[in-house]
């Protein structure tokens, strides 16, 4: 135990003063904490869970190789890998005219043993010098004026309450956003619209016969089992799968668990399957927060709404942002400027890059949720969207619909010009959103004006 660790443990019941306190040891928090420590910052990581529960997370367990390539985090290996994923079959609501997407490097990767993966990320953070306090239930921020100067927390075993002061707080507490929700500051979006939340239920199932294509993920759009959302079946080896349902749109869609149970009853692959694990969760499905920082604090992972709005995948985005944040924290602390201005580089580096892709995908998500099942079935039948479009859309580039292309599709889609127009409009709005994010402001002073331009684009993204 080094001198700094001693200081933290010795004075646990009074005040401790790390450089950075990270709230939440999920994938995003562990990666950010590790990067902070690697940058030489004294880093404290808190989680309300026991250490042995870190990594237990209701999830689809799929993660693309591209995120590891972008961050330098070691690929999953050995028992951490459940399956290699290579390709996806995307089904419209009537489950006909499947779209076989292959060679999609942004999706190809693995399904992982989520527990082992989470434990590995925690271990890597600790090996880098992070001090981890499990069973620390953070209640909210300690404020000095508008500035966050620490967090208050309760030790789950002793009931002891402690105040932890640090130069920077990182809220990586996942969907609950426990610190963010208690900060009253115009830069901070406290609450998000119910329509921007996907409620999910998933089971890990052992099948009674081997999967036919055990490297291909299956995605089912809309339909009776996932209204305004999608269902998935991700392979976990040859004879087990992670399968679930995610629905958006607030109340009135039915419980995700009941929807999943109906899906399970109808879909032949699941007959006589055994449940290995089951559980529900929520995930944000919109663009990231307008600002990922405020005075003395940064937001990360699900707490910052860094999730792909189409498929709800957020592990990769949180890891990417965690690396950037560690580096920005180091710069800001070196310059002794932990204000929103001092931390702004985190916004510029993440939002005008990977965040831009997530924002433009929010338009695509709105298209998918607004079109009717009949329109979607028609679009798949006539191939109005092709596999390359889905790949382009996922990269946030939109789809091209150039003049020759447009003519070709008009011919195919002549029976439903309205749908073609919707597609074209979505493509154009995605490009506009992409451009808006490329112009992300250099300082908080221009944020409101920029945010208005984003809302102006979103207001047009109605495809009913
Ligand atoms: C059903 C479902 C399927 C999904 N499928 C996929 C998928 O296949 N691929 C993918 O990439 N993403 C998927 N996601 C999303 C993905 O799981 C999340 O985006 C990702 O795990 C977020 O990581 P995080 O570190 O931000 O938050 P989390 O993993 O939620 O970690 C937050 C941590 O903060 C801790 N915490 C919370 N409150 C407090 C508090 N008050 N005090 C102290 N600690 C606290 C929690 O204990 C937790 O350890 C799915 C999500 C769901 C719900």
Using brief descriptors, characterize the structure shown:
single chain; 464 residues; alpha/beta; FAD/NAD(P)-binding domain; D-Amino Acid Oxidase, Chain A, domain 2; 6-stranded mixed beta sheet; 13 helices; globular
Written description of the protein model:
This protein is α/β, with parallel strands linked by helices and 464 residues long. It has three domains: 3-56 and 118-190 and 288-351, FAD/NAD(P)-binding domain, CATH 3.50.50.60; 62-112 and 194-284, D-Amino Acid Oxidase, Chain A, domain 2, CATH 3.30.9; 356-460, no CATH class. Helices cover 35% and strands 23% of the residues. The chain has 13 helices and 20 strands. It has helices at residues 3-10, 27-38, 65-71, 114-127, 256-266, 315-334, 340-351, 354-370, 373-381, 387-394, 403-412, 417-438, 447-460; strands at 15-16, 20-23, 43-46, 62-64, 81-85, 88-91, 99-101, 109-112, 131-133, 136-144, 147-155, 161-165, 168-171, 197-206, 217-221, 229-235, 240-247, 274-284, 293-294, 297-299. The strands form four sheets. It has a seven-stranded mixed beta sheet with strand order 7-6-15-16-17-14-18. A six-stranded mixed beta sheet has the order 9-3-2-13-20-19. A four-stranded mixed beta sheet has the order 1-12-11-10, with no helix packed on it. Helix 6 runs antiparallel to helix 7 (340-351). The longest helix is centred in the C-terminal third of the chain and has 22 residues, at 417-438. Mean pLDDT is 91; it is low at 1-7 and 9-15. The structure holds flavin-adenine dinucleotide.
């Amino acid at each position: 135990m080094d001198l700094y660790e001693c200081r933290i443990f010795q004075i646990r019941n009074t005040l401790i003063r790390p450089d950075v306190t990270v709230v939440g040891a999920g994938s995003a928090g562990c990666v950010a904490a590790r990067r902070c420590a690697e940058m030489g910052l004294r880093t404290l990581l808190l989680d309300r869970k026991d250490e042995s529960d870190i990594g237990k997370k209701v999830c689809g367990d799929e993660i693309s190789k591209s995120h590891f390539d972008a961050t330098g985090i070691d690929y999953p290996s050995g028992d951490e890998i459940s399956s290699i994923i290579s390709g996806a079959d995307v089904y419209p609501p009537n489950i006909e005219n499947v779209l076989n997407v292959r060679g999609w490097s942004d999706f190809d990767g693995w399904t992982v043993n989520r527990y082992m993966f989470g434990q590995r990320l925690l271990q890597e953070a600790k090996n880098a010098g992070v001090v981890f306090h499990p069973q620390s239930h953070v209640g909210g921020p300690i404020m000095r004026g508008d500035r966050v100067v620490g967090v208050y927390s309760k030790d789950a075993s002793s009931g002891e309450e402690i105040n932890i002061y640090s130069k920077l707080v990182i809220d990586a507490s996942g969907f609950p956003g426990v610190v963010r929700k208690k900060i009253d500051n115009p830069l901070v979006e406290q609450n998000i619209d119910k329509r921007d939340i996907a409620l999910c239920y998933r089971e890990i199932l052992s099948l009674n016969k081997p999967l036919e294509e055990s490297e291909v993920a299956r995605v089912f759009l809309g339909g009776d089992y996932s209204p305004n959302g999608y269902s998935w079946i991700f392979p976990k080896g040859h004879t087990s799968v992670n399968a679930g349902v995610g629905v958006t749109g607030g109340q009135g869609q039915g419980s995700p668990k009941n929807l999943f149970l109906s899906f399970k009853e109808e879909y032949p692959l699941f007959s006589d399957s055994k449940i290995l694990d089951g559980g529900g969760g929520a995930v944000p499905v919109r663009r990231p927060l307008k600002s990922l920082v405020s005075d003395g604090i940064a937001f990360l992972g699900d707490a910052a709404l860094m999730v792909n709005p189409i498929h709800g995948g957020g592990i990769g985005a949180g890891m990417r942002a965690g690396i950037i944040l560690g580096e920005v924290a180091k710069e800001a602390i070196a310059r002794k400027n932990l204000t929103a201005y001092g931390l702004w580089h985190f916004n510029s580096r993440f939002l005008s890059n990977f965040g831009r892709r997530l924002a433009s995908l929010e338009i695509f998500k709105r298209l998918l949720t607004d079109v009717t099942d009949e329109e979607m079935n028609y679009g798949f039948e006539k191939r109005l969207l092709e596999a390359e479009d889905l790949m382009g859309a996922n990269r946030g580039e939109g789809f091209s619909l150039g003049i020759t292309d447009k003519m070709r599709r008009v011919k195919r889609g002549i029976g439903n010009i309205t749908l073609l127009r919707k597609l074209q409009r979505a493509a154009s709005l995605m490009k506009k959103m992409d451009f808006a994010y490329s112009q992300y402001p250099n300082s908080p002073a221009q944020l409101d004006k920029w945010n208005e331009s984003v809302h102006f684009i979103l207001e047009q993204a109605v495809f009913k």
